[in-house]
Amino acid sequence: MKDVQNMHDSRNIKIDKVGVKNVKYPIVVLDKRNGFQHTIAEISMYVSLPQEYKGTHMSRFVEILHAHKNTINMKDFPAILGEMKGRLNAESAHMEVRFPYFIRKEAPVSGTAGYLEYMCGFSGHLDGQNSMKDFTVSVSVPVTTLCPCSKEISDHGAHNQRGVVTIKVQFRRFFWIEDLISLIEGCSSCEIYSVLKRQDEKFVTEKAFENPKFVEDVAREVAEKLSASQNITHFIVEAENFESIHNHSAYACLERENEGGEA
Q: Is position 156 within any domain?
């Protein structure tokens, strides 16, 4: 059969990224407690296309994805990109993976167990020299914050809200996603749990009240902890509070190159 994709294109225009976008696919990721975890990812895969070719072979992206569905993690990411380059005769390859990740958490007093969802992701590309570039791990963590100003000026209580902290990091060596999540949760007014009994609700309410945080406080504390790690080389921190007394969110963001702190 005629291979139309490999036919010559006379316009002499190179395409930087061509491929498949937002493919939903079952994958297996590493789990610190259980070894592995099954989840459903949304995946985008691209390669560069030389100016002389009319198109790329779209089916090969999904074939490669299916072959690696059990090894979508930060350790095997470069190998997947390498296969994309080889199978598609491309100069460079890029992949983005986003997936829900579930951690079993026990309520702080009753110990009642439930699963909490965290949105995670991997992103990076392999260049013409087969060097891994801009490989990033991202994590979005739901948190609780309590307003320091509200606590200071109010005679009774203080307003609090649910928020989400998203960080994107580049790093030198493997780490567990769970450790990154724990770091973020420790910078909030209180963690979020999927199941709370009355005694648990009392605990989290009082903990948040004794630990007020502006959105700026959360962003700075997360940045401070990331800066103390020699493993993290670059990071972006975004903190957003879904305000309970306003019809808008409070937001803070910072990005830093990390020269490294304590190992």
A: yes
CA distance 221 to 211: 13
Domains in the chain: how many in total?
2
Domain that holds residue 30: 1-98
Q: Is 155 left (phi over 0), alpha (psi -120 to 50) or beta?
A: alpha
Listed residue (44, 69, 53) closest to 15, CA to CA: 53
Do 81 and 146 fall into the same domain?
no
pLDDT by residue for the chain (263 residues), tens digit each?
A: 555 456 555 677 889 999 999 999 999 999 999 999 999 999 999 999 887 777 678 899 999 999 998 888 888 898 999 999 999 989 999 999 999 999 999 999 999 999 999 999 999 999 877 777 889 999 999 999 999 999 999 999 899 999 999 999 999 999 999 999 999 999 999 999 999 999 999 999 999 999 999 999 999 999 999 999 999 999 999 999 999 999 999 999 999 998 765 54
Same domain, 43 and 170: no
Q: Are 225 and 185 in contact (CB under 8 A)?
A: no
- For residue 190, the domain's CATH number is 3.10.270.10
